[in-house]
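I had to read the description of the data format several times before I understood it. The format is easy to grasp once an entry is in front of the reader. For illustration, here is how one protein appears when written out as sequence plus structure tokens:
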Amino acid sequence: MIRSAARSDAAEMAATAIAAWREGFRGLVPEHVDPERSWSARRIEERLERAGMEAGELLVAESGGVVRGLVLYGRSRDQGAPSDEGEVIALYVHPDKWRSGLGRGLVDGALEHLREAGFREAIVWTLAGSERNLAFYASLGFERDGGSQRRPSFGSPLEVRFRISL
């Protein structure tokens, strides 16, 4: 089940994001970059308090009554991005639910919300070294657009940008 996130989901969202980060980014993001810094239950609660397209909105995916996936989406954070460009900012699915359809459902939900909010395109940044992520976004219809970046706060791995028309 895909639905809007609630404050009561914060602990399960944090556990899911941290487990997905540790498994999915192993060997790609330096070990000193701590996922708990960004994805603690307290930080998630703060994000939910200021939710909106500017700060980002969150959807969760439940499996067996437990949150096992989340997606953060909103207005594109890229400098100079057009006002009708949205972004899938973060996607985390618990490793025990990888390849179960939760990630696809979350991204589809985020894209639908962006479309309904008037966005005409959406982007996503993903790690260039993650064949799993690259194949996943391509399977959803996203296409690489040549953009790349390195964020020091993320440990500076190479990220590539994908884009999809809404």
Notes: The chain has five helices and seven strands. The chain has a mean pLDDT of 95.
